[in-house]
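Protein Entry — a single chain follows
Next Lines — sequence and tokenised fold
***
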Amino acid sequence: MRDSFVISGGLLSDKQGQDPIDVFVEGGIIAEIGPVGSLKGKGLAVDATDALVLPGFVDIQVHFRTPGGEESEDISSGAAGAALGGVTACVMMPNTIPTIDSVPLVKEVLAIGQRAPCEVHTSASVTQGREGRQLVHFEELYEAGVRVFTDDGTVVDDAELMERALAATCDLPGSVISQHAEHSQMVEGGVINDGSVARRLGLKGRPREAEAVIVERDLALAEATKGRYHVLHMSTSLAADLVRAAKVSGVRVTAEVTPQHLILTEEDVERLGTSGKMNPPLRTAADVEALRAGLFDGTIDAVATDHAPHSPASKDVGLADAPPGMLGVETMASVVWTEFVDTGLMSLERFVTLLSLAPAQIAGIGSQGQPIQVGAPANIAVFDPTMQWTADHGSLQSKSDNNPWVGVPLVGRVRHTICRGQLVVADGTLT
């Protein structure tokens, strides 16, 4: 990997008439920025002609399955896909085997991540073993580097435990309690969204109201404790309305949405099969429209993928028996660009905020989500906004195939990725 080079001829914005620039990276930071050609000879030339030089993307919800699920994904394969997608930092979820709920496990995962082509951070669970009975030792885990606490995959049903968790993290700067918001009893046995498709297929549904019940409760607890609360993979208009109102009231709340919840609906499940099954499930067209509105009015702060690999064998069963989850870390930027920026619905500035600046702030990753300026850490995605491509299983890095974007024509692709000041992807190839 190269750690001294010049990104040559790129653009810092998509404004018409902007002059191309050179960016010199040395010693892990952006050392100089100048007109194109002015830094020639300072290091290896990395061609960014007609491409955008952006802060590296940050995915704050990925499942890299280490420890215990490496047949579906591991940190090496997951981080490789992340780097190829321009992701320079990601946050692993703790629903592993065993649960990431102790300092030794946090240190083990972070040590493996040091060798990865993107920054790998990990969350830790809110309750020990994600069993919903006893809180973890927040201060010890915080000292080990954890900033995000979540029982993702299950909800913290116990309101008293949730209140104590929010209160306990108030004095830990930058920490946040994140919730997979679906009331356990309301979704028990549910397979896909409780709607017309579930009825047509004869499957038990997961009602939209199950998300709203938990979000409403947790927002009240966050207001009472002054704790920070984050809604993982928000999926309904009901929850979006609650978060919007809470923000107006001054509650310390943030929310994320996945690309799939912004584009796909319950109607896509029949086409995608088990690759279309996830929790929370794909919802209605009305929910998609409401989430898109939240994306633009500030209700939703970040895009995150909930990258959830499952081995082909485990997905090769009926919908009712298949594990929930979709892939997405490698295709996130291209999918969002294709759907929103290339169509003129979203500005480049908002794109960068949703995929880089805001998620880095939510997860307390100070080295990420920084503007392209001299002295900033060199975590950069060089993005070709006009490149047309189609994802296929053979070219993607994940060990698993449950990707809803395979075969979908996309516009915009990462050309180079710089992470920790090193050129980890050059011309679309891992270095």
